[in-house]
Amino acid sequence: MSNAQVEIQLIASVTAAACALPGVFLVLRRMAMMSDAISHAILLGIVLAFFATHDLSSIFLVIAAVLTGLLTVALVEALNKTRLLREDASIGLVFPFLFSIGVILISRYAGGVHLDTDAVLLGELAFAPFNRLEILGNDIGPISLYVMLGALLLNIIYIALFYKELKISTFDTGLAASLGISPAIIHYSHMGLVSVTAVTAFDAVGSILVVALMIAPAATAYLLTDRLIVMIFLSAFIAIVSAIGGYWAAHFLDASIAGSMATMTGVSFLLAFFFAPNRGMVAIARRHHRQRFEFAGRMLTVHLLQHEGEPDESYESGIEHLQSGHFQWEPHFASGVVKFGQKHGWYNEDSGILKLTEKGKTLAGKAVTGE
Amino acid sequence: MTENVIEVTDLTVAYRENPVLWDIDFTVPKGVLLAIVGPNGAGKTTLLKTILGLVKSAAGNVLIFGKPYSEVRRRVGYVPQRGSVDWDFPTTVLDVVMMGSYGKLGWVRRPGRKEKEQAINALGRVGMEKYSDRQINQLSGGQQQRVFLARALIQDAEIYFMDEPFQGVDATTERAIIKILKELRSEGKTVVVVHHDLQTVPEYFDWVTLLNVRRIASGPVEDVFTEENLRLAYGGKVAFLTQHSAGETGNGAEIETTDNTKSDIK
Question: So what's the ipTM on this one?
Answer without folding.
Answer: 0.84
